[in-house]
Amino acid sequence: MIPKFIVFCLLLSISFSDCIAQKKIKLFNGRNLDGWIPKIQDHPVNENYANTFRVEDGSIKVRYDQYGGKFKDQFGHLFYKKKFSAYLLIVEYRFVGEQLDDGPGWAFRNSGLMLHGQSPESMALDQDFPISLEAQLLGGVGTMERTTNNLCTPGTNVVIDGKLVTTHCISSNSATFFGDQWVRAKVLVLGDSLIAHIVNTDTVFRYSKPQYDGTDKWVQQLGLKGGELIKEGTISLQSESHPVDFRKVELYDLSKYLNRPAKLKRKMAKLAKKT
Question: Is CATH 3.40.50.300 correct for 23-253?
Fold first, then answer.
């Protein structure tokens, strides 16, 4: 069960980094891809096909200018080298340029943050998406409303309001962000219990009990048990045929607080008195 003081922090729409004095970890150093591992469909681990992932001007840029004009469903992911269990992830992203001509329609201004994922080494050569929870990042299309920091579940299911949900993608209640503006997305992950998606300071989605989907072929191939809760995993950034930039990827590791609720509660109590 999630301690009430953590939920209180979320309900106040306060940045979790303001709730807990904790040193942040810069997963992206702003200079190069040290610590990151690419895995692109139909290519082996560590092959950064066509220079898909690159660093320019202090940002991770996902680009397709060396693909010869065709995407060919070569979905890619850039994995951080470590696994995490409880953390606040903070990312600033923006969509730019034009999608490749043969990219799927749903991938227009579409990327994602893959959480609690499998390792890149465990992915099959032709596997499109890692088994994971996706904080789906979307940009506005024309004048159409299109929320961001949604949830998609490749090989997984979650519980929402006490009910197991097997729908693949579920929209958040965020605002729509048009054009090439930078957007600040955050995800609070607390092991196999609470997971909350945040855009700027607004909590836009919440769920719990992430678990493997026993009907998924990749889950079956790895011999994972359907319904087994997922307590930790990798973090990765997507490439899905539309150019996207990531200028900030940082994390507050909260794992040590999961077993020290009294200390965390005292910190939250002080915050509650000020608000």
Answer: no
